[in-house]
Amino acid sequence: MTTFASDTDTLTRDALTVLQPGFTGTAAPDWLLRRLGEGLASVGLFGRNIATPEQLTTLTAQLRAEREDVLVAIDEEGGDVTRLEVRTGSSFPGNHALGAVDDVELTREVAAELGRRLAACGVNFNWAPSADVNSNPGNPVIGVRSFGADPALVARHTAAYVTGLQSAGVAACTKHFPGHGDTTVDSHHAVPRIDADPAVLGGRELAPFRAAIAAGSRAVMSAHILVPALDPDRPATLSGKVLTDLLRGDLGYDGLIVTDGMEMQAISATYGIERGSVLAVAAGADAICVGGGLADDETVRRLRDALVAAVRAGELPEERLADAAERVRRLAGWSASASGARSTGRAGADGEVGLRAARRALKVTATEAFTPLTAPPYVAALTPVANIAVGDETPWGVTAELAALLPGTEAGTFAGQVAGGAALAAAGERRIVAVVRDEHRHPWMAAALDTLLRARPDTIVVEMGVPQAAPRGALHIATYGAARVCGQAAAEVIAGV
């Protein structure tokens, strides 16, 4: 493809402005700093970019020295999806735990504290919250990232989360429009489809987005899902009927529209990232998120040049690209004006709010009077394959937390048809704590629990996913998520702390 780079070319600058790329490493590479000087206005951060809060603060200052109003974005949902604490697990429970408590003021407080931590590190744009109504319990990618299955509950907590996050000067990006909850396919791998009629969509999927818009969400992220009732031909990210007619028109939204990651297979394997990006902007998207997998200057150049070429070929109206770029700059301006919140990001900090919320979320079911453990148990983690949004870098479970309370606690990880027998053999005579994640979605996991409970009825079960399966075991603890604080809260119950 011909390169159209020019420091003074307004079209080229606009094309760069609408991109939200990522990069590798814990310091900004030269190519990224150069692109910021040429018009790039946003940068996306992932777990690979973060080592410590101090390092992250240095990194964002490096970016801001090149462009003062740069939007520094991150995928920090708390709970299972964390980038700030990717190697330790989150200090905040995720949405499902907050929905289980159903205290909107608590949700606002959690989001505000998470926002304060982001702002203190120089991050001013969060790809959160997930406003998806998890109406399909078989959903492989949303699950505990959702506040729940009730649209009204999801709506009120989405609004509270947006309010709390933005009170810290961090722009909320409510996702995944028009709603990713009723899917059985992960859009990281293919195009999901929701076959619901407009009335169901309006009362279920769209309710939380209406609430987010009313709460002033600065951004909304599109989903790579096909909803035939809205557009039978194109997924939402590429659909003018969804982004312009529905979101802008019917719902009256005037903030920034961001795409989900364009390298996800739902787009890259069907349209390609260049064609997909052109179609997304033409449909009404203002910012192109890319960088979770493709994180280099070549990707930025390819997308920039694809947008410029599409304008010059008459495939993308120049005024649409200019409007998109202006919306990015408008949000950057809001963020810059909120710098006071960033500079005092620790004011009113509440470092314990996440743990308090995790404790309140627990649902404990005992078949008989339960006596807390005094001897170190064996933790059998029945571990499914992590979805891409969560990743496999972040630890989960109760082992470290139990070991802190009951020194000598040992653990193993098990999966597949032999998991139950293998866990029994490894545990020996020690009391077993079986940790599961979405038992209802994994037949092998349910079978492993059958094996454990037949042989050892005193087994303790900790469900750290969606607690759809019936409680069982001498003690069953549903944590509604796998954040570190959720594991700590469960360990406290097991050890009687």
Description:
Helix 16 links the parallel strand 10 (about 380) and strand 11 (about 410-415). Helix 17 (about 420-425) runs parallel beside helix 18 (about 445-455). The chain has 19 helices and 14 strands. The protein is an alpha/beta fold and about 500 residues long. It has a six-stranded parallel β-sheet. It has helices spanning about 10-15, 30-40, 55-65, 95-100, 105-120, 150-165, 200-205, 205-215, 240-250, 265-270, 275-285, 295-310, 320-335, 340-345, 355-360, 400-405, 420-425, 445-455, 485-495; strands at about 20, 40-45, 70-75, 125, 170-175, 220, 255-260, 290, 365, 380, 410-415, 430-435, 460-465, 475-480.
Write the layout of secondary structure elements.
Layout: H1 10-17, E1 19-20, H2 30-38, E2 42-45, H3 53-66, E3 71-74, H4 95-101, H5 104-120, E4 125-126, H6 151-167, E5 171-177, H7 198-203, H8 207-214, E6 219-222, H9 240-250, E7 256-258, H10 265-268, H11 273-283, E8 288-289, H12 297-312, H13 318-337, H14 339-343, H15 353-361, E9 363-366, E10 378-382, H16 399-405, E11 410-414, H17 419-427, E12 432-436, H18 443-455, E13 460-463, E14 475-478, H19 484-495
Helix pairs in contact: 1-12, 1-13, 4-15, 5-6, 6-8, 11-12, 15-19, 16-19, 17-18
